[in-house]
UniProtKB/TrEMBL annotation:
Protein name: Nudix hydrolase domain-containing protein
Residue ranges of domain Nudix hydrolase in the record: 1-129
The species this protein was found in: Chroococcidiopsis cubana SAG 39.79
SUPFAM superfamilies: Nudix
The family this protein is said to belong to: Belongs to the Nudix hydrolase family.
Any Pfam family the entry gives: NUDIX
Highest rank taxon of the organism: Bacteria
Amino acid sequence: MTHQPVRVAIAILYRDDKFLFQLRDDIPNIVYPAHWGFFGGHLDPGETPHEAVIRELQEEIAYFPPSISEVGCYSDPQVERHVFHAPLTVDLDQLVLKEGWDMALLTPEQIQHGSCYSAKADRILPLVPAARQIILDFLEVGTLAK
């Protein structure tokens, strides 16, 4: 029996040269608890990655991007990550955080450093390693549409 990787769709949302990150809940039984990562999630059966990322953004922060483009796919034996990017056209206070502990716009310097302070958690917490690498690759290639 072959193990199939979990398929997820995630969104790089950006505004004013910063990137929106979700602080994952601090629950021991989830992957990367209390880490900063992307909004997004698992694909439902029969769902395309594009459909999944739109659904996840609505479910997690009540946001519908005006446009969204696929960046590519990052795969490893455990996870197949379909990565999309879109502008964040509203202020943070207009988003409704429905999943996760906190959210913040991180600078490229914070992403490079690999951690960010959360007022809700009252501590500095790390980025999910794959999320950090995806953003660094994204910035290096210069595919960010301004």
